[in-house]
């Protein structure tokens, strides 16, 4: 393994109170190697430089730990909607190996990468599912069954909420990762969150080690989501709830 990679990864994780084992460090390094290699033949990420991958992908993904009151809250079943190259789901799985993780993405090529990545890193209790978010949210076996839903997908909060809140069980959490100004987006999403059975609990603001601003919104599932949501494919993004 690259010594600089190991030193930087361990330093950034320790700043969040996380102590990595040798196995976890190896899993992160192999994940990085696979990401760079597969990215040569398919579009997984625009970020491939080692330090940027560590900070903007790995550390950012695991930053969910900053938003929870107790790390023990990151347990049970977690679904990552619009996971792309596996963020934040795979880094969270590496750090919290007992998590049962489901990765959802609409591109079949990415699913093959995610499955290979999980297999080669010896990650059990993780699956990758090829589906559009709207369709996935209407599948009975996935509806209101997850303890936590996360997403770093680029979409406004109202749209993301319609994709994700239907997946969360009552009492569970939806935690979207956001950057940039959020005030207007939060105001627009407030009504949508309530219609979907959620309640915005708090927003955790922090900076990554490189200075980039990040926010994680914590939305608690209070009541069952009405069966009409999510609406048919394409509607949540074209006509966000309000």
TrEMBL record:
Enzyme class: transferase
Species this chain originates from: [Clostridium] aminophilum
Any one annotated GO CC term: cytosol
Designated name of the protein: Ribosomal RNA small subunit methyltransferase G
Keyword Secreted: no
SUPFAM superfamilies named among the record's database cross-references: S-adenosyl-L-methionine-dependent methyltransferases
Xref: NCBIfam families: rsmG_gidB
Primary role: Specifically methylates the N7 position of a guanine in 16S rRNA.
Subcellular location: Cytoplasm
InterPro entries named among the record's database cross-references: rRNA_ssu_MeTfrase_G, SAM-dependent_MTases_sf
EC number: 2.1.1.-
Family affiliation: Belongs to the methyltransferase superfamily. RNA methyltransferase RsmG family.
């Amino acid at each position: 393994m690259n010594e600089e990679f190991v030193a930087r990864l361990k330093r950034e994780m320790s700043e969040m109170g996380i102590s990595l084992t040798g196995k976890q460090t190896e899993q992160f390094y192999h994940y990085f190697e696979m990401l760079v290699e597969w990215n040569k033949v398919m579009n997984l990420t625009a970020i491939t430089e080692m330090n940027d991958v560590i900070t903007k992908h790995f550390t950012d993904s695991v930053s969910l730990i900053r938003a929870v009151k107790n790390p023990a809250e990151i347990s049970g079943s977690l679904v990552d909607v619009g996971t792309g190259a596996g963020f934040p789901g795979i880094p969270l799985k590496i750090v919290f190996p007992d998590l049962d993780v489901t990765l959802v993405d609409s591109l079949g090529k990415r699913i093959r990468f995610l499955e290979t990545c999980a297999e080669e890193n010896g990650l059990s209790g993780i699956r990758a599912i090829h589906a559009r978010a709207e369709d996935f949210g209407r599948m009975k076996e996935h509806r209101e069954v997850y303890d936590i839903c996360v997403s770093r997908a680029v979409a406004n909060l109202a749209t993301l909420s319609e994709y994700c809140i239907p997946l969360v069980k009552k009492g569970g959490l939806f935690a979207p990762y956001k950057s940039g100004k959020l005030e207007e987006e939060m105001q627009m999403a407030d009504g949508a969150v309530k219609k979907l059975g959620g309640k915005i609990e708090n927003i955790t603001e922090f900076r990554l080690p490189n200075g980039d601003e990040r926010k994680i919104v914590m939305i608690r599932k209070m009541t069952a989501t009405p069966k009409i949501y999510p609406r048919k494919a394409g509607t949540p993004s074209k006509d966000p709830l309000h």
